[in-house]
């Protein structure tokens, strides 16, 4: 059976948790993540977590049954975690309706310009206090900012807040105490952060 983006994200979450717990090294994590996002089938994914504590595996449709609806996959949140490090999404990737980022001590860059976006608003929940977060939105997109930056935080958005259908709309919330958030259509020094049109 072909694996979905949601299946690959679930396996990646298990691997990141295993690395955080010290079960695999950072080098092993990178190797397995590369294999995860290159996987095409469930058989490709299974060996990547076979030596780790049991986690709920991908739900394989019963033979002859229908595959999960596309809308159901979009409802599953994309969870991105790092304790000390970088979280980066750029290029062509599928952004679901909900994205949860936990990266308290590192840099986070989410570039949505070439991402496949869902119908309706994209909800981005940030737990990135003490880190730097940069969101790059498609031209014309709007973003409502509800971030708690009350304690030495910085929020700098250069995009309109009011929705302007059919342009994409983002709702960004969470904690930015001691950290910084920048929301742009296109940022300076993009070469430094590996972002390209």
UniProtKB/TrEMBL annotation:
Residues 48-75 are annotated as: Disordered. Pfam families: DUF1707. Residues 60-71 have a biased composition (Low complexity). Residues 1-53 form the DUF1707 domain. It comes from the Bacteria. This is DUF1707 domain-containing protein. The lineage of its organism: Bacteria, Bacillati, Actinomycetota, Actinomycetes, Streptosporangiales.
